[in-house]
Amino acid sequence: MLARLEIETPSWGYGDSGTRFATFPQAGRPRNAFERVDDAAEVHRLTAAAPAVALHFPWDQVDDLAALRAHIEARGLRVGAVNPNLFQELDYKLGSVANPDPVVRGRAVAHLLECVEIATALGSTAQSLWLADGTNYAGQDDLRARRERVLECLAEVYAALPPEQELLLEYKPFEPAFYATDVADWGSALLFCQKLGERAAVLVDFGHHLQGANIEQIVAILAAEGRLGGFHFNNRKYADDDLIVGSVNPFELFSVFVELGTELPRLTIDQAHNVEAKVEAMTLSVVNVQDAYAKALLVDRDALAAAQAEGDVLGAHEQLLEAFRCDVRELCGRARVAAGGAADPVAALRESGYVERIARERGEAAPVSAGWNA
Amino acid sequence: MLARLEIETPSWGYGDSGTRFATFPQAGRPRNAFERVDDAAEVHRLTAAAPAVALHFPWDQVDDLAALRAHIEARGLRVGAVNPNLFQELDYKLGSVANPDPVVRGRAVAHLLECVEIATALGSTAQSLWLADGTNYAGQDDLRARRERVLECLAEVYAALPPEQELLLEYKPFEPAFYATDVADWGSALLFCQKLGERAAVLVDFGHHLQGANIEQIVAILAAEGRLGGFHFNNRKYADDDLIVGSVNPFELFSVFVELGTELPRLTIDQAHNVEAKVEAMTLSVVNVQDAYAKALLVDRDALAAAQAEGDVLGAHEQLLEAFRCDVRELCGRARVAAGGAADPVAALRESGYVERIARERGEAAPVSAGWNA
Amino acid sequence: MLARLEIETPSWGYGDSGTRFATFPQAGRPRNAFERVDDAAEVHRLTAAAPAVALHFPWDQVDDLAALRAHIEARGLRVGAVNPNLFQELDYKLGSVANPDPVVRGRAVAHLLECVEIATALGSTAQSLWLADGTNYAGQDDLRARRERVLECLAEVYAALPPEQELLLEYKPFEPAFYATDVADWGSALLFCQKLGERAAVLVDFGHHLQGANIEQIVAILAAEGRLGGFHFNNRKYADDDLIVGSVNPFELFSVFVELGTELPRLTIDQAHNVEAKVEAMTLSVVNVQDAYAKALLVDRDALAAAQAEGDVLGAHEQLLEAFRCDVRELCGRARVAAGGAADPVAALRESGYVERIARERGEAAPVSAGWNA
Amino acid sequence: MLARLEIETPSWGYGDSGTRFATFPQAGRPRNAFERVDDAAEVHRLTAAAPAVALHFPWDQVDDLAALRAHIEARGLRVGAVNPNLFQELDYKLGSVANPDPVVRGRAVAHLLECVEIATALGSTAQSLWLADGTNYAGQDDLRARRERVLECLAEVYAALPPEQELLLEYKPFEPAFYATDVADWGSALLFCQKLGERAAVLVDFGHHLQGANIEQIVAILAAEGRLGGFHFNNRKYADDDLIVGSVNPFELFSVFVELGTELPRLTIDQAHNVEAKVEAMTLSVVNVQDAYAKALLVDRDALAAAQAEGDVLGAHEQLLEAFRCDVRELCGRARVAAGGAADPVAALRESGYVERIARERGEAAPVSAGWNA
């Protein structure tokens, strides 16, 4: 069962990331999409559980998509979801598909349609869409009109999807918009998906919730409705911190896997490694997910169901505790080795010299950049 | 337009309320449903905007419903929503309609069906349902099975509703359940309503959100979907504090009314006046709502739409600010007097001697009670 | 080292507790302080790590304190902290030591002084003080004047403390006060302690923080300042949920113990077992604390310090992960058995028949009570 | 009294700002410190209440400080606080004054000492220090050691302060650090100030609190302790959103001014105008502050104190409501005109052509930049 776990690592997770205050460049940062794929392949080599790489456009734009696809496959990977980018053009300052200006909306739709074609060319089976659209002040724009605009644009894109592609719609309560985000919560995302069609589903990013939200319950509802499209794994203590999955509350990650059982949707890592070593951070992230999944598989489902049926509150809860308390490092290590990976991927990475090699080969880091500058 | 505003005050808001630590009894506390109606009538006499009284069963249970209805109408009021109670029986310790035990669920459904009959007898047009159901620990119960049980029970009740009654379903993220509440957010409530039928709608309680939730946006979505059933007015700074509506952030209350425009759903106050004078608190609450609604009516909608269309962020926002900054006390006072109320309801209450009179007539306060005692 | 762990369980944790909505009585609820001590002794018998029982007055008031002390010692326990109660009298509706009325403040001080004498009689070495004082509305009272009143009252109590007693001051951001709590955060509590004297220290309750607060960092600061008086253990996902310690985020509990090292302050459990079996809940709580402490002891401190010194972000973090991932159930079980407890305390409790016996002997449960009733 | 209000506007608030996702450049963005001063002068010309400009170094670094000071004074302004920058150098990736590397700490101290000299040269009377220092993962660094390092560095800087300069220390719970920020809350900041000396005081930024924090209570405590150094005005709904002060909850801003009374500390605006017109946003911000302060001056302090003394909860609260409900636009307009400003500063700005002129004169906007890029 453990071998079923397949995680997509994000090409953008190998590049530099930061906050509005500063982005600290790292040595060995990949210079293009091909090198980002190389890093993803290294993570898969070590963990044997990261066989796909999610791409982001135009960040991963190349002249020859076929060459990129060939490179990915040559590295033993497949293409994961395609992620369009609708937040880094001046036109999108007041929104993309929710923008009051129809010209801007048209431009946004054109990019989305282009991504459908890119996905087709690459053999990807999903558009994974996060909208940064929203407003910063009460009254800034008409909330209902914005919602209608979003729906109209998404419907146009959905209609263009080939049958093998699905549309994953992500929600997020705030940032970069600080008053009202147009797809703010799972309910908002689900309503759009219901109107679009059966191949539209909701993507759950761990950091995209208000404080206290019960993520495993959201997962349960979406799964029951047949609309759980997948995850963006990360972790947070405060806002959308994009830390390593499982680093803040590993019991929450475990609880999500308990809810999923063995029916796993698309699982993608989406993190920002601002201060930690990037390839190691991604490797550790995959290990953390394997750890949580392995523990969830150890839950005695019959005993759990029996205790639940009897209203034995603690008896049921303790079934989860018992599984969570197990040390699954050796179990996971054996599974990884059996699948061609390393028993201890982080240690193997540190011993491999990979990080030193890319630092040497890829040259100097970029200067510090920032979103806030006078 | 201001005269259109009609608020339901809650019979339970005139009784004692507290926290788990203590409920401090107040002098003049009504001894039965009839006296609670008397207090509601006093609030309407002063404000001319609270013509309905929402009831709670079995708290407002009387031997003769016809007599209660006659009393309500004799006081110049009408019956508002009927609120069933599914959280104060030992059977409901692990839930009511979500309880793993079918016997308990049956009991809960029986109470709900009884409330439908009560509403018919009283001429009420709505069941207003809040479920305290939920779990306190991961694994305690199966989240999906609980959801199916809730739906099955609600469907049975919905089927029994006479055509003039609607079912309002409230959501709440936590308290009394502290791990997973079965109807935790507006999305959860809306999914149930979609499955039940057209006369099921979502009720928005201001205090039933996680920190940061944008209530006016939720209102916009529910209204656009035709599923905004109404409000429970109150305010909070922390959790479900049940303070006086508009006392923490009056601009938020105003923003909700800006979103509603002149299409007002059922508006009910639901507060817990733990330390403040109850009748005065209710009177002030109605005044705060009138104030917010009056300001919202002053928004220059054409100018707002024009600024929004141009992407004039601050020009649009300033339209709201201009209306909010107006002093509408005199305007509201005139409207109240024209409708038979008082220019300054709080001052009028203080001068009327009503509070002193009920303290005299209704006798001694009860002892302090508490939810936490060794 | 594991044997050093000594936890106080709270007498009030064996009685019934609930929310403002309902308190569901449990069979076997102890009828008096002596029976609460019996339950505490059972938890210590099973865990061998709960040798003290914290008391609450007037809840644990008895005619003969010497008899209570003798009973406690006969059960193999000692008296933990004494907890005064300043929130369940009608006089305290607007506060106790912060009340604008000097008569009420005098009454509060008198109770606190009485508790000092009680502690002396019982051999307790700490007053553990939580103040429910606060306001519900902006302007309700003068925040600075309230603070001065609190200080004046506490200074009077501090002056009366015998040298073997310390004053632990707890903070809490909200509930039962919903606008401003007079001792709302650790900074507020610390300022009072600084002004009182060296035997005043801050007590950290896990549930008494705003969402996102970093508890282990607060612990680090208070310890560095020599003002960490102890803990009230519990866990929460939302507000002050008072769930079983370690049940929401066991990694956070572990991180607090990593911060403490082997210098453990007073450790007390303070929970409300509203729906779960009480004696089992307390037993599981002690086990959870043992588990977290045992894992913290496994951290390789030298390797951690080395990685920190090198700025090896993930290398340092992974030292914590490695320890946390260990399965310490057997290790803890052996330590418990060596100290006279059970290898698996929860299983031993279930097999012992203790719960059935007290249900039989102590008779019928009380009726449901609630803080909110019309 | 209204004329006493003097606000510092921030030079960096006239430049471009954004989020990690994108910084959208605006036309007319000042090209250097001199032009930023010109914008500040325009805001003061319109509002007659913004006579100082806070500066940020090295962002406002110029070859000739005397020339900058002369320019500022020629524009009718004075120099506000000097703000050092310790977060945009690669060295500071793991912290500045808390960095484990003493070389980096030395560099940070050198910059701080340079800022003391800059302030002396400019006639500034305050260092306003925000530290971005913190960690992203449990175990990443030793929290207590970091605190000692911070104190050691700040003590060195404090010792170098000339008598006319004070040290304002800002706190912030998270961002850019996402696990533990080294000066996370007011208590942490106050402890540093206590250890540094009498001219160290805490600076309160409205957005730098966890959800639910009662800012006016923090203000009351710091003022009572003689350690309220000043404010960074802005507003937020979610995290540190840096929206226009008063735009989310104007009643909270009013409540802070009620707490302050007429003893105003240093008042500075610190906002990020990501999507709105910058000069207009700053002008509106000053107007919002004037509005809140004017309303606070209208509170009947005697009636308030009387109601508080009587324990008249609502009577006291209503004193605040009465003042807040007043329309002070005309009053503020008259005060501005009397002081040489505009009756309606925002309208006057829109009519003045200033924004169009600077767009013309200062040339093309910069390209979109972002903190997150692959």
Structural features, described:
Four copies of one chain form a homotetramer. Chain A has helices spanning about 35-45, 65-75, 100-120, 145-160, 185-195, 215-225, 250-260, 280-295, 300-310, 315-325, 330-340, 345-350, 355-360; strands at about 5-10, 50-55, 80-85, 125-130, 135, 165-170, 180, 200-205, 230-235, 265-270. Chain A has one domain: Divalent-metal-dependent TIM barrel enzymes (TIM Barrel, Alpha-Beta Barrel). In chain A, the strands form two sheets. In chain A, strands 3-2-1-10-9-8-6-4 form an eight-stranded parallel beta sheet. A two-stranded antiparallel sheet of chain A has the order 5-7. Chain A is of the alpha/beta class and about 375 residues long. In chain A, strand 1, helix 1 (about 35-45) and strand 2 (about 50-55) form a beta-alpha-beta unit. The longest helix of chain A is centred in the N-terminal third of the chain and has 21 residues, at about 100-120. Chain A starts with 6 loop residues before the first strand and ends in a 12-residue tail after the last helix. Chain A is built from 13 helices and ten strands. The model of chain A has no long low-confidence stretch (mean pLDDT about 95). Helices cover about 45% and strands about 10% of the residues of chain A. The relative contact order of chain A is 0.15.
CATH topology of chain A: TIM Barrel
Number of helices of chain A: 13
Number of domains of chain A: 1
Oligomer: homotetramer
The CA-CA distance between the termini of chain A, in Å, is 54 Å
Q: Characterize the main sheet of chain A.
A: 8 strands, parallel
